[in-house]
Specification:
Blueprint: E1 2-5, H1 11-23, E2 27-30, H2 44-47, E3 57-60, E4 63-66, H3 68-78, H4 89-117, H5 127-151, H6 164-176, H7 185-195, H8 198-204
Parallel strand pairs: 1-2
Antiparallel strand pairs: 1-3, 3-4
Helix pairs in contact: 1-3, 1-8, 4-5, 4-6, 5-7
Length: about 210
């Protein structure tokens, strides 16, 4: 059985849990990093698996991996799910493009607002930085909205793919952060389509109604 190490409320762990549901993979989720002293990320047992001390980590019959998006690609490819991660170079590149955009651009845009307004973390209380980052986040959501209005379906085209997992989690974070949400028809319709999927309801929304 696939081992998934990481607290299940982590957005990056939820990517892997959701994909496993889509793939029909049986898994055991060990909630490392959940505050339990026996599951600290600096414990030797964990750092032996990931010296970066971050979740998730998987152990697939002795094959250990970290980095959530790399794990997504590996799981889909190893299970030969070309519907989720195409084999044709151009189709695969389009999926990779949006996965990487989420990691490099969109993920960075919501970091400060989320830590300030949801987690209420010390040091994230500068009004100017918050306003600027919300504006930047909104601009990137408009990029996504334009793409979704063009496809009228999912982020890389007509079908649900691997790209919709990290993007879908980011869209959920957008709607769950207490900021102004300008109306974006493409994003709103996309969110409704994702909500029709059991895997998103269970893991993408993290059990939220």
């Amino acid at each position: 059985m696939l081992r998934i190490l990481g607290r299940p409320n982590s957005i990056n762990v939820r990517k892997v849990l959701w994909l496993c549901h889509e793939l029909g993979i049986a898994f055991d989720n060990e909630p490392w990093g959940d505050g339990d002293a026996s599951r600290r990320l600096d414990a030797p047992a964990f750092t032996a698996l990931n010296p970066n001390r971050m979740v998730p980590v998987i152990d697939d019959d002795g094959f250990v991996m970290w980095e959530s998006n790399s794990i997504l690609r590996y799981l889909a490819a190893s299970r030969e799910r070309t519907d989720l991660y195409p084999g044709a170079p151009r189709e695969r590149a389009r999926v990779d493009q949006w996965v990487d955009w989420q990691a490099s651009d969109l993920n960075a845009a919501w970091r400060y607002p989320f830590k300030s307004l949801v987690r209420r973390m010390p040091g994230y209380d500068d009004a100017g930085t918050l306003a600027a980052d919300i504006a930047g986040w909104t601009a990137l959501m408009r990029v996504l909205d334009a793409q979704l209005q063009a496809t009228q379906a999912f982020v890389s085209g007509e079908a649900f793919t691997l790209a919709d997992i990290p993007i879908g989690l980011s869209v959920h974070r957008w709607f769950s952060t207490p900021i102004d949400h300008p109306r974006m028809e493409g994003v709103s319709s996309y969110y409704e389509r994702l909500c029709a999927r059991e895997g998103f309801r269970r893991f993408g929304r993290n059990g939220m109604p």
